[in-house]
């Protein structure tokens, strides 16, 4: 038999098996209905719950193989919920909506039937979420890969999975935003001989950030990853929430605003030369000719760094630096002196009065650019920690309220629809009580990462307090807000957390209000309405989003 | 490296057993002994002398891990025998636990019938590599 005939015969047999499986599914559904009936009479019946668990487990493990991928996924989610209930003390067992589940399974089956073309599970779901960042994952362990794909997907990334590094060659037309590699992810012999050389060669054409994963936590493993071109190394077992948060930040920092640099220099020609060099490196530059105008100019331009001559007309650089240091707003502003001064003692004195570094004339362009970038980056990080909540990277309470106020005022002058959302993690106290505060913090951090990942950079996202979040969605109708928050809610529920060796998932509730329906409301009143809608969501059963009613 | 030929496969679900058998025999060209329980495996292992075991984790009566321990106790699993679990549990911690009790690797369920044999051979190669 030649190959194509062989394959053909094979797919025919596979198709037959899949049909047979479909008949069996009918029986499985009948069985589920039976169990549902039993549980309706006696919701805490241990035996029925165990039967339900085993029926779902078998579906979860088999459906995908026969091409019913959605059905398998759905069954797995439900199996996990049953497992949770089985662990609860018998008097506290929550009743499960089994009939509703059966309907969900049936609709998943219908979806599969209509889409069924290829057999087997697709580990890389290539659902093209518009503009969502794409991660390429190279991981040999199929099981871990599936887990990682599912988790990263929950955080709003597209993921393409390769099980061996050699498959990277197959596609030279697209590039990922981030590459995530198990440092042993190939069967090729050359990896064993010289791993660093192997990866350098393999990855030399890729310009995106590269992260390595591996089981060893050692100096050598990290150094190898670094030399192989990796910007970081994550140790297995992987903390997916930390990893996702790291990747999200990595991608976000790619499209940052240009650095703003002010140049104060006696030598006009040199000043314009510096301006040219820095502007060519995509920075914004302002040249200040008269040091006496410093205060006006600085408020106007809002620089993130000052480059100045050590000796200016009528005033010295260190004097200007000292003046800036007296003002709270500018006391953290980095200052770099440009000078021909090679006297170490004089330099030391200048730095004591204020200022951060010296650049010696003639100035090396590359050094100048790099120094400016790194100082501005450090300043931005500092600002970030000041206004942002450390755990989530979202705006702090006061800042999100301020952002809402600003937006409200803006719409008083110029009509624009915006939405206010209040969001709260369900039963959060129980997470803290059961798994401890460290795990609770992880859950909060996951909401932060998910929000930053799923919402537009123009939206204002804040941690309102504890496990409560407030969002201001700019130029957004209530329909759109509901859709986005609902999809966030579903993604969040799909994230698996680990506490004390056990897996669990969390849900969240939200209240949404838009300014169009309540034109007379103040910012504060809108926030209160969103809050009441949130409580309505909580009172009607949680894990849902409610819209504030008229 | 010894070529992988004889694989003993233990799975209680008849549909899964069928499709996996087909995948391993027809697609993969392996000689397979499919068993419906750990007990059947224990009864037939001596005559078949497998180089590798594929064990479903969750089975009524004797589950996969128990089957593995029993096979090893009776001397049918030695340093040159590879063992892979097949399971729908996806958490890495579970994988670590299975490896601790002696599994060479774990195959995720649902598996793709077209690539199952490749996965099995890759595990065999890594085991002997």
From TrEMBL, chain A:
Entries under SUPFAM superfamilies matching the protein: CheY-like, Histidine-containing phosphotransfer domain, HPT domain, Nucleotide cyclase
Residues carrying 4-aspartylphosphate: 182, 309
Gene Ontology MF: a single term: diguanylate cyclase activity
Signal sequence coordinates: none
InterPro entries found in the cross-reference section: CheY-like_superfamily (IPR011006), Diguanylate_Cyclase (IPR050469), GGDEF_dom (IPR000160), HPT_dom_sf (IPR036641), Nucleotide_cyclase (IPR029787), Rev_trsase/Diguanyl_cyclase (IPR043128), Sig_transdc_His_kin_Hpt_dom (IPR008207), Sig_transdc_resp-reg_receiver (IPR001789)
Swiss-Prot/TrEMBL keywords: Nucleotidyltransferase, Phosphoprotein, Transferase, Two-component regulatory system
Domain of life: Bacteria
Domain GGDEF: 416-550
Record Pfam families: GGDEF, Hpt, Response_reg
Class in the EC hierarchy, top level: transferase
Keyword Signal: no
Reaction catalysed by this enzyme: 2 GTP = 3',3'-c-di-GMP + 2 diphosphate
Keyword Nucleotidyltransferase among UniProt keywords: yes
EC number(s) recorded for this UniProt protein: 2.7.7.65
NCBIfam families tied to this protein: GGDEF
Name of this chain's protein: diguanylate cyclase
Species: Vreelandella neptunia
From TrEMBL, chain B:
PROSITE patterns: RESPONSE_REGULATORY
Coiled coil, from the record: none
InterPro entries: Bact_response_regulator (IPR050595), CheY-like_superfamily (IPR011006), Sig_transdc_resp-reg_receiver (IPR001789)
Response regulatory domain mapped to chain residues: 6-124
A Pfam family this chain is assigned to: Response_reg
Modified residues (4-aspartylphosphate): 56
Keyword line: Phosphoprotein
Presence of keyword Ubl conjugation: no
Signal peptide: none
Entry annotated with the keyword Phosphoprotein: yes
Top-level division of the source organism's lineage: Bacteria
PANTHER family named among the record's database cross-references: RESPONSE REGULATORY DOMAIN-CONTAINING PROTEIN, STRESS RESPONSE REGULATOR PROTEIN 1
Name recorded for this polypeptide: Response regulator
Native species: Vreelandella neptunia
